[in-house]
# Entry
Amino acid sequence: MKRFLSLLFIILCSIITLTAQNNTKKYSELIREGWKLCLKKDFTNSAKIYEHAFKINPKAPLNDRYNAACINSLAKNINTAYKHLFIAVRELKWHDINHLNNDTDLSNMKKDKRWDQLISLMRKNKNNIEKDYDQKLVSILDKVYFDDQSTRSQIRTKEKKYGRDSKEMRAFWETILEKDSINLLKVSRILDSQGWPSKKKIGQRGASTLFLVIQHANQDTKLKYLTMITTAMKNNELPKRQYAMFYDRLVLGQGKRQIYGTQLAMDKNSKKPYVLPLEDVKNVDKRRAQMGLNSMQENLNRWDLTWDVEIYLKTLPNIEAKEKTLNKKNK
# Structure
């Protein structure tokens, strides 16, 4: 009897595990399909697919909830958009007020009285999470983050309006680079005087802000802070995925192949992104998993691209030749 019960328990566990795996796969497929429709600006049907996905996985991650809110806003489903935002704030404790205020996908929601309610809840989340932080340091880093992201969030919109090589875009990039220089001065003062601050002082967003500024700096700056950033990652003061992005950009700047496949470039002719030169292509997903990154295919879903290792290996020599030519022009 005991043997029978043990066998039955194993079978039930196997069924539960298999069902969970199937649900996870189905959820990922639906999110991917919904995002494809979003890229095609079919926001109405994209929103429907996201709703179906959330029925399979009610505990969806913050990123998917937020994307669903934006898609529903664009589809003019304001009530549903608010539903997802309130889930993000109440259940997932989201508190990035600057991001919310600067996301143009949500512009048509701001006149609704629920907007102020949302901000109020987010401010409570932020105050609760940051109550033991170094408020002076957090204030500096909040401003740095806003200046970094508020300009970069406009790049795609302005490129569509004026063209990538237009005088308007060149002027806009000068504005971005000017802000980058000011931000680097602020961040360098912090790092040079006290090293990499603990998350207990500045939180995850603060650490990400430091990362962003160094990530956007020149090669000499990246090399200067490489050891500090590596130590921060090893001490769990910086997410591994952000370190992977930093390191990929660093080695590409040295004319080497990236390791984690985080860096892409836009093809001028096809207007589609492509993966910059990558080392040990066949094992990249293993390395990505170690750094907390999703698979190459999952990452490329946002651009509706297919990751095929064999095709990439065939095109890699041409990609490297193209990058060498571009790097020579830029020097």
Notes: The chain is about 70% helix and 0% strand.
